[in-house]
Write a structure and sequence with these properties.
heterodimer, A: 583 residues, mainly alpha, 5-stranded mixed beta sheet, B: alpha/beta, 2 domains, 13 helices, 5 strands, elongated
Chain lengths: 583, 290
Amino acid sequence: MAPTPVSAIFGAGFTVAVSMALGFLLLGCLRLQFHRTEAALLAFVSGSASLSLGVFFLCLVHQARPVAFAFLGAAAIGCAIWQARKQPERAALPEMPAVWRALFGVVMLAFFLCYFINAMAPEVSPDGSGYHLGNVARYVRNAGFAWDFHSIYASLSQGMEMLFLVAFSFGKHSSAALVEVAFQVALPLLMVCYGRRFGFPRAAAFAAILTFACPVVGITGSSAYVDVGIATLLFAVFYLLQVWNEEKFINLLFLIGLLCGFCYALKYTAGVVLPFAMGFVWWRRAGRRVPILLLGAAILITPWVLRNWLWLGNPAAPFLNHWFPNPYWTDRLEGSYLSGLAHYPHVKSYLDIPLQLTVIGGLVPGLLGPIFLLAPISLLALRQSQGRRLWLAGAVFAIPALFNTEVRFLIPSVPFFALAMGLALENSWGVLPVLAVFHAVISWPSVLDVYCDPNAWRIRGLPVRAALRLEPESSYIAAHIGDYALKPAIEQAVPPGERIFSFAGRPAAYLDRDIIVGYESSLGEQVSQLLERHATQEVKALGIRYLWINHSDALAAGMRSDPKSWGIRQLAEANGTTFYRIE
Amino acid sequence: MALVALVAVFTGEAWLAAARPITPAEALAYDRFVRPPMRETLHQPSRNPDVLYTLLEKRSVGLFRVSEFSIRLPALLAGGWYLWAIRRLCRRSLLVVALAVAPLAWQCFSTANGLGLALALAAWALEAVPKKLNWAGVCLGLAVAAHLPFAIAVAMIAAMIVWRNFRWDRAVEGFLIPALVAAFLLLVLPLSLAPDTPSAPPELTSAEVKGVRAAVEVLRRESGTKPIQVGASAAVAPVLRFYRARFRLASWQFSDGSADYYVLPASAAGLAGHGQLVVLHRDGGIVLAQ
């Protein structure tokens, strides 16, 4: 059934509602008391961890079906409503100044509409339409994990994909992107709550505007990516650590542990939060409480570790292959993959990097916004203990960016440095609102076009017609993803269950045939080497009868000029790619 | 006496702003940073050292149409503002007169660049200290945005102000941060996008500028309102484009290739590249040819 705007909103809304329900139940079980707004936000993030874990187990037993989600979700919502009846009304946090309330409200509303419309449009982001929703679509087809498909991206931890799976089951691709929008909205609201609770509401509102309007946060959060979700979770962990530091309530540590584990489940690199949290607890002279934190973390980490260990023989797949050799991915491939991620391509000098990250964004790709050139000013916040903590958290959560040069790897540290900037500038009259308005204006999609690189990854407009499906989904996707043009030919020529080889990644989320990508598995590498030797019959013997080749691939010219000598037959060609069958 | 001197200086500056012909630097700044839409001004082959000034110039040209006076109007108003500031700043009439007359030497209030505006803003910053440190900081930040080479002078003034009002928190939060932010807001995009290797055409002499103007007059008479293609050398083009806007010659199209008319420097090098041309007019080292 073709997705509609209503089904997309329902899928995402249902996922968020179940997450919140599970979260309120969890907070109730742990007897944790929060103020009104922060309780809702923390219930959402902690409930999403619970839902992700639940869906993981459903995937294990191949019962990840819409009916199961609907029944179990409705039950969770019912229980949460039942529990809420007994709860006394929660107190509100201290108010934010009226001017800031108005400014924050206007900016939030404008950018929320922009992100919502973009998320509602068919998913066309590279990784979203590639492996994030490619994995989800495969799990939907299998009603659980697909054990016979091996790729580095299938072996990564997929906590967010578990949430996408629930939404996708009802509303397809856009629904999954809307779940990420929910995390995107939760982040600035959490930041504002943090400022209101700890006594700097203006700085927090400023930082929330900086974070929410940040161009790379905008595009990542309105696509089926996981980075903004990670940023929200990391901030929630930091928030709860500060609350625990004041209240020293032991159950909070368990919740913090759960969220740390969920961070690992979202992305390995976010696992850096666990040592951070342990260090913080130890530093506050509560080292003997660390096991409680670890217990919570283990609940979310262990399932993914065990899955990979039992399935692939490597608990940290696709990494640490040197210590856990396995037939699916080698030490050498891992090394070349990681070294490729860690270098800035085409950047002439290190002095260009700050401008690329903040203003130009063509090579990184994406941009944080010119305002972040003022980030060094946040050093002034080191005079305050809050500033020092924020700075330390920002620095620790930026560590993964050393291993991957894409600017979105800096997203987790953006809220912390933005808050530190807010604290540093708070006492300069008029500076915070002026900078906030300036940032919001120059981060608006049509204004970005004026100054950033044309190739910078960013939101490019408001695709209202595509979002409402007034423009057919297929034409919108085809206009943004060249490979989509071959979808009909592939579905016609390739029997279900057959595999296709490609040197480059493809929009797997829109194709229900498995694609073996050259650099994503040992099998892919083996096929690449066989093709370099023109050994197409040996490729066929491996069970791969179809090739999808870009014209820019090294072997493409030979294949196109003399397909007979290769033993292949061209089936279709479009947008610089050709689809072959091995005869 | 001081008031009379101030009025006299302002009148003199106004007369100069209206009467002096356009300079090549003014024409180039107009051509690169005022005439094109905002989107294009950020991607010019040279850095804009007068960002705030060119923004005001754009506004002035939008309100009063293109003319030598309208592009200098922001500088002239800055001159008035400067004179007002020094009157408030100095108690002795002699000093007021000296400070009022000094900028005449650079004609900075009758030239379309940001120096005069920067000077006025710096004077107001000094006037605002120590009571309104925030305001002083904003003025100094805007002074840098008005004329980038003025940054060194601003740094010295800022150091002086911080030294005189030394209390770390107050100096940083009440003065330096507003200055930094004011300059940042205006300069961040133009400077971030400025080319690594700026390029500017060779400048014409003032005689050659007059020659271009004379050529424009002749060409206006020659072609009337009919559409024509005009070719010009890199040095002549900005001045020619200014006069095209000045006289609202919308029917003139500029061409890099073959054209109906050429306005070129009279040097052999200028003419050599354009084959056989019939010279229609020659003045001040500039040739109008067909």
